[in-house]
UniProtKB/TrEMBL annotation:
Residues 96-180 form the Core-binding (CB) domain. Belongs to the 'phage' integrase family. The keyword Kinase does not apply. Residues 204-396 form the Tyr recombinase domain. This is Site-specific integrase. Coiled coil: none annotated. It comes from Flavivirga spongiicola. The keyword tRNA processing does not apply. It comes from the Bacteria.
C-alpha cells in the first residue's frame, strides 16, 4: 500500500507492506517511493504511467511473496507469535544485506538532488565492497572487528587521511541507521558508539591568504586572460565574504539592484543581500560588454548549461572549478604564494583577514550561517590575537 503519512519533499510516498494479526497492524517499508498519481489503490500496483512500472511491480510482488512465505511458516509452526515478531521475521528474511540498503540510501540522495554526495558515497561503497571481496554483506557480519580492519586498510594500504577515514565510517553508520529506522535490523548489534567504533573527526586545517598575498593577486600582471579570469572570479568570491564558487558562477545581472547583490545560496537556499564593494564593481564592469540582457549570467561558464538539469549543472560547476584551480595554482607560483590557492580558499581568506576584528554576530550574517556556533567553530581557525598575546606575556621577559 501507499504510506500517506510520510510524504517526501518531491511529493512521493513510500510503498509499504501491511501486516495485520488480531487487529494489530505493522508496516514494512520496501524502500521504494512513488507519486500518488502513479499508484493504483484498488489493485495495489504501480500504474503504467510510471516509467519503471513493470520492474517495480515485479519487485513489489517478490517482496510480498517473501512476506507471505514467512507468514505461512509462522502459521504452520508457531501461530501465537505477535505481529511485531512476524514483522521482524519478514524484514530479516528480506533485507539483511548492507549493500541492498545502501542502494536505497543512494536512491534517496538522487531524489534529493544531492548528486555530488551520491557520486562520492557510491565511490566509497565500491572501495568497501572491494575490501570485502564480495557483493553482499549481512548486517550481522558488520561488526566492530570488521570496521577496524577496514579502517586499517584505508589508513595503511590506501594511505587515506584520518578525515577521509571518518567520512567512510560516517557513511557506513548512516546506512546502518537507515536500516534501523526502517525496522530492517535491531539496534542491539549496533557497532558504533562508546566502547565500539567511535568516529572522531579531526580538526581540518583552514589556511587563508594574508593581506599582502591578496593585494598581490589584485595587482598581478603578465598572466594569460584565462588565468586573469580565474583571479577575477576568486576576488569576487572573496569580496562578497567568501561566497561559494557555484553561487558566483550562477550570478545574473538581475541579481544586482541599487548597489546591492541579492542571491539565493545553492547550499541552503537562503536569500542573501550584500553591498557591492567598489572593488567588486570594477571587476564586474569588465564583463558588461558580454551582457545581452538583464537576466544574462555575469560569467560565461554556465551560459550553455540547462539549469533545470541539476545533475549536469553540478557536474559542470565541478569541471569549471577544477579548471579555475589549475589556473590559480599557476598564478600562485608566479607570485611566490606558497599556499594552495583554490576557489574554496577565498572563504578561508576572508576569515583570515577578518580574524577577531569583526563581532562574531556580524560574521554570522556575512557567512550566512544558521547557527552562531557554526560561525564560532569556523572563525576560531583564524582568531589568534589572544593566544599570541598570551604567549608574548610568558616568553617576552
Amino acid at each position: 500500500m501507499l504510506w500517506k503519512h510520510d510524504k517526501k519533499k518531491d511529493n512521493t510516498f513510500p510503498l509499504v507492506i501491511r501486516v495485520t494479526k488480531n487487529r494489530k497492524t505493522r508496516y514494512i517499508f520496501t524502500g521504494e517511493y512513488v507519486l500518488q498519481k502513479d499508484w493504483d489503490a484498488e489493485k495495489n500496483v504501480i500504474k503504467k504511467s510510471h516509467p519503471n512500472a513493470t520492474r517495480m511491480n515485479s519487485f513489489l510482488l517478490k517482496k510480498l511473496s517473501e512476506a507471505h512465505d514467512v507468514v505461512l511458516d509462522v502459521k504452520a509452526n508457531d501461530n501465537k507469535q505477535s505481529v511485531s515478531n512476524i514483522k521482524k521475521k519478514i524484514v530479516n528474511e528480506q533485507n539483511t544485506d548492507f549493500f541492498t540498503i545502501s542502494k536505497i540510501y543512494l536512491n534517496n540522495l538522487e531524489k534529493r538532488k544531492k548528486f555530488h554526495q551520491k557520486d562520492s558515497d557510491a565511490g566509497r561503497l565500491n572501495i568497501f565492497k572491494a575490501f570485502l571481496g564480495k557483493e553482499h554483506l549481512d548486517f550481522n557480519d558488520l561488526n566492530v572487528s570488521l570496521l577496524e580492519k577496514f579502517q586499517n586498510h584505508l589508513r595503511y594500504e590506501k594511505k587515506r587521511s584520518e578525515r577521509t577515514i571518518a567520512n567512510y565510517m560516517i557513511l557506513i553508520r548512516t546506512i546502518y541507521n537507515l536500516a534501523i529506522s526502517q525496522s530492517i535490523i535491531d539496534r542491539r548489534d549496533y557497532p558504533f558508539g562508546r566502547g565500539k567504533v567511535q568516529i572522531k573527526i579531526p580538526e581540518s586545517e583552514k589556511i587563508g591568504l594574508n593581506l599582502d598575498e591578496i593585494q598581490s593577486l589584485e595587482k598581478v600582471t603578465g598572466i594569460t586572460s584565462a588565468q586573469q579570469h580565474a583571479v577575477n572570479v576568486w576576488l569576487i568570491s572573496f569580496y562578497f565574504a567568501g561566497v561559494r564558487v557555484g553561487d558566483v558562477l550562477k550570478l545574473r545581472w538581475s541579481d544586482f539592484k541599487d548597489g546591492r547583490l541579492y542571491y539565493r545560496m545553492g547550499k541552503n537556499k537562503k536569500l542573501v543581500s550584500l553591498k557591492v564593494p567598489d572593488k567588486s564593481q570594477v571587476l564586474l564592469d569588465g564583463y558588461k560588454e558580454e551582457k545581452q540582457n538583464i537576466n544574462d549570467l555575469v560569467f560565461p561558464e554556465l551560459k550553455a548549461t540547462n539549469f533545470k538539469d541539476e545533475r549536469t549543472l553540478t557536474t559542470r560547476v565541478k569541471t569549471v572549478t577544477r579548471n579555475f584551480n589549475r589556473r590559480l595554482e599557476i598564478v600562485a607560483g608566479k607570485l611566490e604564494i606558497d599556499k594552495k590557492l583554490s576557489m574554496h580558499i577565498a572563504r578561508h581568506s576572508f576569515g583570515n583577514i577578518s580574524g577577531d576584528k569583526i563581532p562574531i554576530q556580524m560574521l554570522q550574517k556575512l557567512y550566512r550561517h544558521s547557527s552562531i556556533t557554526t560561525t564560532v567553530n569556523y572563525q576560531q581557525n583564524f582568531m589568534h590575537k589572544e593566544t599570541d598575546d598570551a604567549l608574548d606575556k610568558v616568553i617576552n621577559f
